[in-house]
Amino acid sequence: MTEPEVNLRIYPFTNALLTKKLLALVQQHQNPQQGISEFMKMAADLEPLEITLHLPQLCEEKNVSYMFVSSKQALGWACGVAGPVIACSVTTREGSQLQQQT
User: Where's the Ribosomal protein eL8/eL30/eS12/Gadd45 domain (predicted)?
Assistant: First the structure.
């Protein structure tokens, strides 16, 4: 599988190892319930890129971490859907069974 072409205007962009770990984290923490966003993941290989360019500013306003991964198809797989996903948010709820890792 070849790496998708990445637009150089995006930042911060994750390397392959970190992308793999973060996509696994997204897959483990799928939850349809609303909660507090812990971090946002966005695909870097979408066209036009402007579709998600408002999200980093929103994340900064809400003090939410964000990053770009190379593949919208991989992000879709991590989210448990058959098609590509251009953005997702990992959330927690108060009283959640998820434990924080340091």
Answer: 41-97
